[in-house]
Write a structure and sequence with these properties.
62% helix, mainly alpha
């Protein structure tokens, strides 16, 4: 009651009396604060809001701000000089530590935060500012769910903003022992003696606030942590790695949140789940339709997105440490036993879906690479038939190969590979596909150019020619032998005319959406080029191998030595096997497998392009994509001879697939009709990819 009356009287006097000079006014307010603690009648138990202290702090901030506006550029005013010379910040840091009266810490943090934020001067390097600021940083996050949490994170946010403006200030926020060790790295004995006291208080406080139950506070703490680790120099990064629990705590919390995801979730719930670090979950998870189990999944995915952001934006040394810990402590220690579960197919299915969901949520190349090494191994050696190699890779490919045992698990595993190929690293593509193609052992160099000597009559016998040379490359000549071969029109026709007109579901005069395939292929290829632009891939095909030095050496060697044995690799072998069995597989599996092949065909490696998208090359008795598709088409032609009203059923099937209707479900040969339509569209897509890659390289 009396304090409020005093405020009213003070404001009235202030309005009537002439204003004091800024320096005197600042000193008067500061003396009023110190006087509060020297008076015997003052009580430290009443809340600070019941005293004049908040008003004095506000007036001091206003005076300093006014002085900044009125002072000349570069000059320091009397109020600021007084604050530094009389160690005002040291005193208020002590008051904040005591938090007397209750709530004092909040107002001190606001006062110092405003001072640092509004001042045009670089205050932090000064000892009378840096030391008390370090003390205030250590106060933040000391008590979980403290009343001052919002002021604490606002203060730390100001510190991080200053760090972003001047990254060299990072050393100011290390502990004294850390600073001494960085200044004199030669004194190894001194460094080791101080090792226990080396720390980064700013990171420690942010980690504490990161666990706040207040989502706004925790999100802001996470963003501050990303910021301060992104501007760290090498020395500071090593202090964070070795002398803080930052990386361990981040990954430990990820494993804890993952452990809370119930194993009873349905895969469809996981597929639909999406959460971002900076988006509040409260509006989503408060919906009564969302189960507690899915809420836990969203919390896990939100934290995974934070780990991804931190790994991608932090100092490279910190990012590497996080990725290593992510792989060893989460993927291998926690996920591996779940995804390799063979006794319970439901658990294996759910975990495979969770891994795919995780891949969708990350974009950091380091985390993607961790997933790649975890799923596929770290070897650069070609696959050998019968050799299992990396056990998890072998298991996943086997699940795709033998999907009849558990169709849903097989489809989920194919989707996992699809996710991996949409966020690839060079190591992932090499491991999964390219290791067996680099030597070009699929190419029969002894065949000469006979495969290219087609006459127009032979082409006409297979169907009409859709492209002429003039249409493909008007007024230009190809400059890349791999991606822009001279017989591009024949290559396109190999795919587009693979199915005879009489068994196609689209009319001959109908373009059937081919232009759409061209547009999609162009966009996807440009995205793929951006992904691969830093990869060490050749632009041209390797020259012909000198497998035979001369006639005499050729006579003395076995015939098999003149050409090297070729095996496409476990992954491509599985892909080709699945394509060959399209007539017996569900429609969803056929869609997924062709989607995988289309994605692979987009990658700009000359050997991969030649092997998948050039049906004219001579092969060493091995399979290729075109020969596999040709076999499937031959099987279709044999099977449809028994189909009554084939054309009518085919049109109904296409219409039903496009409209997601089910009127054709009673057809006994529905699988064959569906497979035919998938093959027809797949061939258009392959031709579009070849066409786009040709023009991009010619």
């Amino acid at each position: 009651m009396f304090s409020r009356l005093a405020n009213v009287i003070y404001n009235a006097v202030d309005a009537l009396a002439p204003p004091l000079p800024l320096h005197e006014e600042f000193v008067w307010h500061w003396n009023a604060i110190t006087k509060f603690y020297t008076e015997k009648t003052s009580s430290g138990k009443i809340p600070i809001e019941s005293t004049n202290l908040p008003d004095h702090f506000n007036q001091m901030s206003a005076v300093l701000e006014q002085e900044e506006e009125e002072s000349e550029s570069g000059s320091m005013g009397l109020c600021m000089e007084y604050l530094l010379q009389h160690k005002v910040l040291e005193t208020v840091a002590v008051l904040a530590r005591a938090d007397t009266p209750p709530g004092m810490k909040r107002y001190v943090l606001m006062f110092v935060g405003q001072l640092l934020s509004n001042s045009k001067h670089s205050l932090l390097p000064q000892i009378n500012v840096c030391t008390p600021v370090q003390k205030l940083i250590k106060l933040c996050g000391e008590v979980m769910a403290a009343p001052s949490e919002r002021e604490e994170i606002a203060f730390l946010d100001t510190i991080c903003a200053k760090l972003q403006e001047n990254p060299y200030l990072a050393n100011c926020f290390l502990s004294d022992a850390s600073i001494r060790s960085l200044k004199d790295k030669k004194k190894s004995e001194e460094c080791s003696s101080n090792e226990d006291s080396m720390e980064y208080p700013l990171v420690k406080s942010l980690l504490s606030l990161l666990s706040s139950p207040d989502s706004e506070v925790s999100t802001k703490a996470g963003n501050c942590l990303i910021l301060c680790t992104s501007v760290a120099n090498d020395a500071v990064a090593m202090v964070i790695i070795k002398h803080t629990v930052c990386c361990q705590e981040i990954i430990n919390r990820l494993t804890l949140l993952y452990a809370g995801v119930p194993k009873t979730l349905k895969p469809i719930d996981v597929d639909e789940a999406f959460a971002k670090w900076n988006h509040d979950l409260t509006p989503i998870v408060s919906d009564a339709q969302i189960s507690p189990g899915k809420r836990r999944l969203l919390c896990f995915l939100k934290w995974l997105d934070f780990v991804d952001c931190l790994t991608q934006q932090s100092h490279p040394l910190i990012g590497d440490t996080l990725a290593t810990s992510f792989q060893s402590d989460f993927l291998e220690a926690i996920l591996y036993p779940n995804i390799t579960e063979d006794d319970d197919k439901d658990i294996a299915l759910l975990m495979t879906t969770v891994v795919s969901c995780c891949l969708r949520h990350i974009s950091s190349p380091k985390l993607v690479n961790s997933f790649g090494v975890f799923l596929l191994g770290d070897t650069a050696e070609p696959d050998i038939p019968g050799y299992t190699g990396h056990l998890l890779k072998h298991l996943l490919i086997e699940r795709c190969q033998n999907s009849s045992r558990c169709p849903q698990l097989g489809l989920a595993t194919l989707q996992l590979f699809d996710e991996l190929l949409h966020k690839p690293t060079e190591k992932i593509i090499n491991n999964l596909i390219l290791n067996n193609l680099k030597e070009r052992n699929y190419y029969d160099f002894t065949a000469g150019d006979s495969y290219f000597d087609f006459s127009d009559d032979e082409e006409s016998a297979h169907g009409r020619s859709l492209y002429d040379d003039d249409e493909i490359s008007p007024g230009s000549s190809p400059v890349n032998r791999a991606f822009a071969p001279t017989h591009i029109h024949r290559i396109l026709n190999c795919f587009l005319l693979l199915l005879p007109d009489e068994i196609k579901s689209c009319d001959a005069e109908d373009d059937s959406g081919y232009d759409t395939y061209i547009n999609d292929a162009h966009r996807q290829f440009q995205e793929c080029l951006m992904l691969c632009e830093q990869w060490d891939w050749p632009q041209e095909l390797a020259q012909e191998k000198n497998t035979v030095e001369d006639d005499s050496s050729s006579d003395s060697q076995p015939e098999a030595d003149s050409t090297s044995y070729f095996y496409e690799g476990d992954f491509l072998s599985m892909i080709f096997d699945k394509l060959e069995h399209m007539l017996e597989q569900p429609y969803e599996v056929n869609l997924q497998i062709t989607s995988l092949v289309s994605r692979i065909a987009l990658f700009p490696h000359p050997n991969l392009h030649e092997y998948l998208l050039n049906p004219l090359i001579p092969l060493t008795g091995c399979r290729s994509l075109f020969t596999v598709l040709l076999k499937v088409v031959e099987d279709i032609q044999v099977n449809i001879r028994k189909t009554v009203n084939f054309k009518k059923k085919l049109r109904l099937t296409r219409k039903a697939l496009l409209s997601e209707a089910s009127e054709y479900s009673s057809f006994e040969d529905a699988n064959i009709l569906e497979a035919l339509i998938v093959i027809e569209e797949f061939c258009k897509e392959l031709a579009a990819i070849a066409f786009v890659k040709y023009h991009a390289s010619s």
